Predict the structure of Transposase.
Amino acid sequence: NKPYFWTGAYFVASCGGVTVEQLKKYVENQNSPKVETLPR
C-alpha cells in the first residue's frame, strides 16, 4: 500500500440564521486584516 496524504475524513458545518450574502462576505474576508463577524 502506498501512503496517502488525504484521508477519507470530511468536514461539514452548518450556517443557520445568516443570509447567503452574509456568508459570502464572511468567506471573502477570511484573509483580510479586518474581518466582519456574522450576527448571532
